[in-house]
Amino acid sequence: MPTKMLQIPTPDGQADTFAAFPDDGKQHPGVLMYADGFGIRPVVREMARELVGHGYYVLVPNFFYRHGPAPVVELPEHIGEETRNELMSRLMPLIEGHTVERTLRDADAYLGCLTAQPEVSAGPVAVTGYCIGGLLAVRTAVAHPGRVAAVAGFHAPVGAAGPDSLRRLTAQVHFGHAATDLTPEALAELNQVLDAAGVDYTSEIYPGTVHGFTMADTDAFNPAALRLHWDRLLPLLDRALAAL
């Protein structure tokens, strides 16, 4: 399948972005994928290619582009616990500095680039994200109700978007939470907010998981949970984007 790196102009610079799409000469629905805090790397590219294999054009931006091209910190082939702690100490200032305002300015640029690609179908797109990327996905969907038809977040701090934002979701939603990230009581509170707002959603704790369970290059990886993630994500995209 064709892949390429794009440079997306934003108000704050150029965001280096991985793009992949089916090699059939047809148009396909677009998916904006936000990586986790470790950013664009082989495992994320492979997940993007998996989505492409199901008929989607996938765009993965380096949302830390203000600090340099991806990866913004040097990454080992496998991110073990000791390595993770050291990497996170360097990444946390970048994560904390990635404000809502920056997220929304960037989202405008990312969505504009995605929908302008000649291989992307007209109409709404989907947004998905992992870890901090899941929060960015939610904020993007809330800010673009007419452009985002589906949003998914995995082992993501989606509650940090705040109840007021979550109530404004108009996209179809799936949240897959790590068992170490959210208690059943906290899940019930989150879901109550979505229920009260009439959001079309599923939101569940994936059994036996720890934060980062989808990422095969980390100690957190859980193969069964990754399969469950695909079992939830692909039908969501199909329902929301099948008519495109």
Account of the 3D structure:
The chain is an alpha/beta fold. The protein has one domain (3-241): 3-Layer(aba) Sandwich (Rossmann fold). 39% of the residues lie in helices and 21% in strands. The chain is built from seven helices and eight strands. The chain has helices at 42-52, 81-97, 100-116, 132-143, 163-166, 184-197, 223-241, and strands at 3-10, 13-20, 30-34, 57-61, 125-130, 148-154, 172-178, 201-206. An eight-stranded mixed sheet has the order 1-2-4-3-5-6-7-8, sandwiched between helices. It is globular, with a radius of gyration of 17 Å. The two termini are 21 Å apart.
Q: How do the strands and helices of this protein lay out in sequence?
A:
Blueprint: E1 3-10, E2 13-20, E3 30-34, H1 42-52, E4 57-61, H2 81-97, H3 100-116, E5 125-130, H4 132-143, E6 148-154, H5 163-166, E7 172-178, H6 184-197, E8 201-206, H7 223-241
Parallel strand pairs: 3-4, 3-5, 5-6, 6-7, 7-8
Antiparallel strand pairs: 1-2, 2-4
**Major beta sheet summary:** 8 strands, mixed
- Report the average pLDDT across residues: 96
Distance between the termini: 21 Å
> Care to count the β-strands?
8
Using the CA coordinates, give the radius of gyration: 17 Å
Contiguous helical run count: 7
State the strand order across the main sheet: 1-2-4-3-5-6-7-8
The amount of beta strand, in percent, is 15-25%
Number of domains: 1
Structural class: alpha/beta
Succession of helices and strands: EEEHEHHEHEHEHEH
Which CATH first-tier class would you pick?
Alpha Beta
pLDDT < 50 runs, ≥5 residues: none
* CATH architecture title: 3-Layer(aba) Sandwich
CATH homologous superfamily descriptor: Alpha/Beta hydrolase fold, catalytic domain
CATH topology: Rossmann fold
Percent range of helical residues: 25-40%
